[in-house]
Amino acid sequence: MSNIDLTRRRVLKTGAVAGAGLALPTIFTSGAHAFTNEPMGGSVTLGFNVPQSGPYADEGADELRAFQLAVEHLNGMGDGGMLNTFSSKALEGNGILGKKVEFVTGDTQTKSDAARASAKSMIEKDGAIMISGGSSSGVAVAVQGLCQEAGVIFMAGLTHSNDTTGKDKKANGFRHFFNAYMSGAALAPVLAARYGTDRNAYHLTADYTWGWTQEESIAAATEALGWNTVNKVRTPLGAGDFSSYITPVLQTDADVLILNHYGGDMVNSLTNAVQFGLRDKMVNNKNFEIVVPLFSRLMARGAGENIQGILGSTNWHWSLQDEGSKAFVKSFGTKYGFPPSQAAHTCYVQTLLYADAVARAGSFNPCAVAEALEGYEFDGLGNGKTLYRADDHQCFKDVLVVRGKENPTSEFDLLEVVEVTPASQVTYAPDHPMFAGGALGACNAG
Amino acid sequence: METILLQLLNGLDKGSAYALIALGLTLIFGTLGVVNFAHGAIFMIGAFCAVTLSRILNWSFETIDPEKLDFLGNPAKIKTPYVEAWFGPEFGGALIDWAVPLAILFSIPIMIAVGFAMERGLIKHFYKRPHADQILVTFGLAIVLQEVIKYFYGANPISTPAPDAFKGSFDFGAMLGFDPNMIIYPYWRLIYFGFAAVVIGAVFSFLQFTTFGMVVRAGMADRETVGLLGINIDRRFTFMFGLAAAVAGLAGVMYAPILSPNYHMGMDFLVLCFVVVVVGGMGSLPGAVAAGFLLGILESFASMNAIKSILPGIDQIIIYLVAIVILLTRPRGLMGKKGVMEE
Amino acid sequence: MLGLNKKDTTFLLIVIALTIATPIILQPFAEGSELAQFNGGYPDLMQKIAIFGIFAVGFNILFGLTGYLSFGHAAFLGIGSYAAVWMMKLLTMNVIPAILLAMIVSGLFAAAIGYVSLRRSGIYFSILTLAFAQMSYKMAYSVLTPLTNGETGLQLSLDDPRILDGAMEGTSLPVTNIFGIAMNSSYKLEALGRVFTFNVGFYFCALIAIIAFYVAIRLFRSPFGMMLRAVKSNQQRMTYTGLDPKPYTLAAFVISGMYAGLAGGLLAAMDPLAGADRMLWTASGEVVIMTILGGAGTLMGPVLGAGVIKYLENIFSKINETVLHGWFHWLPDGIEDVVIWVFARFTGEGWHLTLGVTFMLVVTFLPGGLVEGLKRISTRIKHGSQKRDKYDDPDPEHRPEASKHVA
């Protein structure tokens, strides 16, 4: 408050000084390392930042299991899992570049602030050279930004928003998981084939950025096939009881309800919709249908039998029969006693991909690693042939369209794969309007 | 017209949950003068009573079926619930199906015990402490209870369906002379509303028409004098704590089919219910109930598309907005008493 | 010195010394030792402790002195952060204007919200502040996304104007700085087998925290502070003496709102991101709890409470089973498993449990908060094992008597 007499001239002067200061190297940083947290000893530390408290704690726990498994496999313990099916053979099961892999964990609490604090402590205190994990797009974007500033690699966990590799993309951030656009592109043809092209869709959308991008993507994809969008209604996050958003659906001539919700909101809105008898309804002589574009098997359990017959999309499912998936399910299932979730899969794969990129680049330098990942094509990690596109650091691979299983044989057997949409069908131009507005920038090595 | 009627029903339903929790909170405020931040956790424990009973009924033995394979390719283990083995699949299956209504009986003794244990073990040491201390200790307790539930049941919601007989919905509109299929409402939600009305009625008549209730009311008004009359008011207040816990617990049990229980549902409801209690007026039981229904109905109306298109986002803040308006126009909420919790 | 009496001066000097030495004090265990996990001397945690210390000290000016329990103070923290980030986006990456704007904007909001809320007292006041904060949170998360960037939080981007900093060069985001010295630069000193990190950002926060603390001491000792205490003890009597308590309480509310805004601005200055979660009711609850945990109405208590909670959150949540295994690997297998199981309930994903248990234990056994615990220890040391008779402490177990009358 002592600066009350700050004149315009002085503000300009300080601004100029500040600008000049930016160009200078930060004199205080100790310059022993070539890049942030360069591993010096016989080990390298990875940071796994997952939700351990809050609504996504179970997904976080599953991600952590997958990370532990990946670290075991990298260090040459266990049965090797997907290392045996991975198309690249750069990894030898002796850690990464001969350095033993160690890891630290933290709690994102599914809040961008807490996630950044946790990631910072991993970077500043534990010397983590790569951060991975997370179960929401807000957190992914926030942590990705932090990693860019700090000069470490961010391998995103479960994040489905277009923005992560769209307007908020960063040179140090990489996403293996699919996104809302891909969900729409994969789902729409299946919806059209099953429900016809003359449908009236009503959207209920979680009122925050992820919900909006998904609503936009799905509406665009279905409208392109001839569907009509009756209404798009935003619902508060964590509304609990969705009855007051579902009853208005009864009054319209909508015959499809699209629930752009995830996690607990998805469970509640779906349960409520079924309770209100929407699935028994006939509108315009057509059976009323509900669609949940993004499925999570862990969460689907909360909806119980309400999920049966509902169509949606998912990144990966344990029932896939390719060699990579089978190897992963086997080592995960043997170790923990139940099959992995899609969150666990993407986290496991991201860890292997990072390690492999380091091995191929021959360096832990984030810029070298990023270069090794950019435009990299690989196979054998569960989704068929996959490309890490250089333009936006998004993986392009097959997308699964799934349906809630009518007669589940066990508590894990909730979804069945309806169709595997080939990667070519979900690929979009890097400058697609839904992804426009951001720039990767240059990679930062700290 | 149909829209308004439907939203009214939705509002009554939401209001029932708010009113039941707020009723318990007010009982504790009014009788013991304690700000109980663990009340949401009690509601959550109630919902988990339903989950627990359904788990107990589903308690199974495993037989190995060599025909089928599990996800690893090993022979699958088929689970058969003991109740089905003992009572036959028909009756046993029905028992499992009726887990939620049965949990009402199961939960009452548990919730009363939880209430007693809380009051005797912890809360009674805090009667004379400042409200801030009460908030801190009950908040700590709520976190501990949540973490215990999270350890046993995980963090994801757990599906707890209503019995098959109450699934589906009831054509309410046809009964009132509207077009069929315009106003349909799920049976279970109608039952929830009726149940809430019965519980609220029972609590009020208990306080109004029994000697015990009379003494408690007298104690709420003037604890000292009642104590001087040689009545052990403390014991009765402990009982009231148990009663409040039972009311919140029952609200939780019956809410389980509407909202799949998860370990943090208590915290989600807590803040809303505090707003409800205060809007109703501190220490007033009818106020809490009225405010619960009022806010539930207004919340439902605010989420109507016609209103949202004029005021986007109004459904997010309506409860708080109404709370502010009411507290500014009526200093002590709807029916608050002078001097209660005003310092 | 500086208008303080001797006792307060010593106190302030001790606080200054402790703050300067924080990077050393929080790094007690040698690098590589099993207990290095408990070291907290890294920039982010130290900054957070200083910042939340400011937040709690400011909250205590309202709550500790006037007794008005605001349950919506996090709103001012969030508003401060948003204001600061916008300043950095539009004007300059120098943190001074950002922090000033944060204080001004949150002060304005505090004046408006305080003016309305202070028309009621007691729990009605608490709920009014809670309602305003929840409304801010909900709007920031959804409807106001163009202004707040919703779920992700407001952050810098390459194409921000930043009028005073001139044209951007390069393709990486600028860092926050004070007249050219970057906030994230630090000097690392390796000595005694430990790495001590002296971070510019932390010392900047520490300097402001000390100023804020000094202002708080002056406030506590001033006639104005006296008036605020009068509001707490008996408003009616105050009115009878011809004084209107309202301007005093409103001033206290605005001052503590500005402290919160200052803390929010500093958060953004250390890490230029402002998330809506900062305004959630749990965040408001956190500062209440920091204050009570440390000792409401005391000067040092809130800072202590902030330190303990932030330390638990950041250190305990990172102790996973692998770390536990490292600690207890020397135990026989069966016992090791049991010990690890017990510890795992309280660390890692169970850190919330530690938090809850801490709250309950402190408030039950140390009614005056942690400060009272320290006082007891120091009396114990001063008087040695001198036996005390019952007149020293009328209620040695601090067991409250049965309530005679509850309103």
Label this structure with key terms:
heterotrimer, B: 343 residues, mainly alpha, ABC transporter involved in vitamin B12 uptake, BtuC, two-stranded antiparallel ribbon, two-stranded antiparallel sheet, C: 407 residues, 6 strands, 62% helix, globular
Secondary-structure map:
The complex is a heterotrimer of chains A (446), B (343) and C (407).
Chain A: H1 8-23, E1 43-50, H2 57-74, E2 100-107, H3 112-124, E3 130-133, H4 137-150, E4 153-156, E5 173-175, H5 180-195, E6 200-206, H6 209-224, E7 228-235, H7 243-251, E8 256-260, H8 264-275, E9 282-283, E10 286-287, E11 289-294, H9 297-303, E12 311-314, H10 323-336, H11 342-361, H12 366-373, E13 376-378, E14 386-388, E15 395-396, E16 399-404, E17 415-421, H13 423-426
Parallel strand pairs in A: 1-2, 1-3, 3-4, 4-5, 6-7, 6-8, 8-11, 11-12
Antiparallel strand pairs in A: 9-10, 12-16, 13-14, 14-15, 16-17
Chain B: H1 2-32, H2 39-57, E1 60-69, E2 75-81, H3 82-97, H4 99-121, H5 131-153, E3 169-171, H6 172-175, E4 184-186, H7 187-209, H8 211-221, H9 223-228, H10 233-255, H11 265-280, H12 285-302, H13 305-310, H14 314-329
Antiparallel strand pairs in B: 1-2, 3-4
Helix pairs in contact in B: 1-7, 1-10, 1-11, 1-12, 2-4, 2-5, 2-10, 2-11, 4-10, 7-8, 7-10, 8-10, 11-12, 11-14, 12-14
Chain C: H1 6-20, H2 22-25, H3 43-66, H4 74-90, H5 95-117, H6 122-141, H7 145-148, E1 154-155, E2 177-178, E3 181-182, E4 186-191, E5 194-199, H8 200-221, H9 223-233, H10 235-240, H11 245-270, E6 273-274, H12 281-294, H13 301-315, H14 321-328, H15 333-346, H16 351-365, H17 370-382
Antiparallel strand pairs in C: 1-6, 2-3, 4-5
Describe the structure.
- The complex is a heterotrimer of chains A (446), B (343) and C (407).
- Chain A folds into 2 domains: 212 residues, Rossmann fold (3-Layer(aba) Sandwich), CATH 3.40.50; 134 residues, Rossmann fold (3-Layer(aba) Sandwich).
- Chain A has 13 helices and 17 strands.
- In chain A, helix 11 packs across helix 12.
- Chain A is α/β, with parallel strands linked by helices and 446 residues long.
- Helices cover 37% and strands 18% of the residues of chain A.
- The N terminus of chain A is likely disordered.
- In chain B, 69% of the residues lie in helices and 7% in strands.
- The mean pLDDT of chain B is 85.
- Chain B has one domain: Orthogonal Bundle (ABC transporter involved in vitamin B12 uptake, BtuC), CATH 1.10.3470.
- In chain B, helix 2 crosses helix 10 and helix 4 runs antiparallel to helix 10.
- Chain B has a two-stranded antiparallel ribbon. In chain B, strands 3-4 form a two-stranded antiparallel sheet.
- The longest helix of chain B has 31 residues.
- The longest helix of chain C has 26 residues.
- Chain C starts with 5 loop residues before the first helix and ends in a 25-residue tail after the last helix.
- Chain C has a domain of 275 residues: Orthogonal Bundle (ABC transporter involved in vitamin B12 uptake, BtuC).
- Chain C has a two-stranded antiparallel ribbon. Chain C has a two-stranded antiparallel sheet with strand order 2-3. Chain C has a two-stranded antiparallel ribbon with strand order 4-5.
- Chain C is built from 17 helices and 6 strands.
- Chains in contact: A-B, A-C, B-C.
- The interface between A and C is large, with 69 and 65 residues.
